[in-house]
User: What shape does this take?
Amino acid sequence: MKQDLYYWRLVATGLSYFTFGLGGLALRFILLPLFQLSTPDPELLQVRTRRLHHLLFSCFITLMRVLGVLTYSVQGIKAQLNKPGLLVVANHPTLIDVVFLISFMEQTNCIVRHGLFNNPFTGVPVRNARYISSKNAQEMISDCATRLKRGDSLIIFPEGTRTPMDSSLQKLHRGAANIAIQANVRPTPVKISCEPRTLSRGQKWYHIPLSKPHWTFEVGSPIDLPNEEARTKAARSLNRLLADYLSGEENSI
Assistant: This one.
């Protein structure tokens, strides 16, 4: 049964994504060129660009909430997501998970597909923010560990892609665990759930649920690194701990 002003939510969802597209064009062709002209220092440009991404994504989430498209809540200590040098490891059930997390975190790095660096629309935003390319796995892990040691925060989705509708969690790649071990940083797990499910892999934006979806973000305590001396074995153990938390098999770690 269609509930919560279903047809209005359908229109409002389309309006939200149209606005997101306009915002992306304004960011690429107006705001970031102005930032580049006024900010010759690459370090300061990175800080200002990430702060701008944070503000724009915050506005987008607020717009969707005000229009009645969605609701969300955060369990745990949301403020801890803005600590420097934080490695946030999250599951990936929906298209806008990263938008939510960047809206919570004022200064954070993330891993993006290498093709986005050469895209005429996304190249400037990702380069100015100094996001990390996924082109080479070993270089990516080393780069992530180096950035974390310098005090960068980092968001990683170890599933690698969005979770399908018929699954709660895919098998985790060990990249996040390897980065944590190499950087000697305890990962902070964030379990994301969306009920009813929407914007999962294979779903179009207009396939909205019959009732208003609600996102829940469960911010866990940092997970202690395993004591194993061998890095491969330690990464494997840590990966299991992350999978247990993100799948809900353990309420706390």
In short: The longest helix spans residues 6-38. Residues 90 and 190 are 5 Å apart (CA to CA). The chain has a mean pLDDT of 94.
